[in-house]
Amino acid sequence: MIKRLSVAIAAAVLLFTALVLPPAQAQSVNQQLAAGSVLETIKKRGAIKVGMSTFVPWAMRDKNGELIGYEIDVAKQLAEDMKVKVEFVPTAWDGIIPALLAGKFDLIIGGMSITPERNLTVNFTQPYAHSGIQIVAHKEQAAGFKSLEDFDKPDVVLAVRRGATPATAAKRMLPKATLRQFDEDALALQEVLNGKAHAFITSTPTPAFEALKHPDKLFLPIPEPFMQGAEGFALRKGDPDALNFFNNWILLRQQDGWLKERHDYWFKTRDWAGQVVGE
Predict the structure, then answer these.
(1) What backbone phi and psi angles, to 5 degrees, belong to 270?
(2) Residues facing 199 on adjacent strands
(3) What percent of the chain shows pLDDT beyond 90?
(4) pLDDT over threshold 70, residue 32
């Protein structure tokens, strides 16, 4: 009888342990994750640090040297909704992910396309913008070019921004072409304007804007983007609370139309061009 009672008590203890301790441990883990979230850092600091890089019309300097653009509007509105200030950290594009991992800023809002390669290193939110990759070409150098096959030749020089998704797309889809990489979009474009490259490959709407600005030198050999992309905020891995918050912020700002309104202003009009030198 005593032996049976002991077995019953042991079974009850084991059952209690199985049912009670795991949830308690899970709650402890959840609390630790929440306390370590970048959201807590942002709230304590009273400011959100945003890594970004300048390229039209995502982020650029106006005539007074102030940052303007779609990304800038997004980051400012995000900060306002979080009731904190925003601090922009301009960073070279090819070093922006290492800088995020090193803790130089809290997240990247920089027109970063979601790719499997990047996603192995950082987490992405759901897309807050959708862009495409398009070609703007020199009228003389690329005369008669009408397809991707026309550009996929060893004697064709393509200018791209180093480390950007269009550069990766050009390598994959135009492997025979000669790729010339630059640290800034403006430098890559200038190479084409100078007649030293056949075309500049970059994200929409830049190709269309540049063709309109330089009708004597540039044209769109392929009217539509040859590749579609989706852009998300990039975060350090291991922070589910931050990922959840930013995903829901994007969802709500999509639902109320704010993201579309801002995107249409920067990508479908040139009303802002007078604020920027050279635009």
Answers:
(1) -120, 25
(2) 137, 158
(3) 80
(4) no
Contact 203, 229 (CB under 8 A): yes
Based on its alpha-carbon atoms, the radius of gyration of the chain, rounded to whole angstroms, reads 25
| DSSP classification of residue 84 | S
SS3 33: helix
CA distance 86 to 72: 10
Give the other-Cβ count within 10 Å of 143's Cβ. 11
Q: Cβ contacts of residue 196 below 8 Å, gap of 6+?
A: 157
CB atoms within 10 A of CB 200: 28
3-state secondary structure of 245: helix
Residue type, 247: N
Tokens linked to 78 = 């995000």
Peptide bond before residue 57 is cis, with ω within 30 degrees of 0: yes
The pLDDT confidence band at residue 36, using thresholds 50, 70 and 90, is: confident
Q: State pLDDT tens for residues 2-28.
A: 444 444 444 454 444 445 555 555 455
As given in the structure block, the two tokens for residue 108 are 């990247």
Q: Which residues contact 39 (CB under 8 A, 6 or more apart)?
A: 241, 242, 245
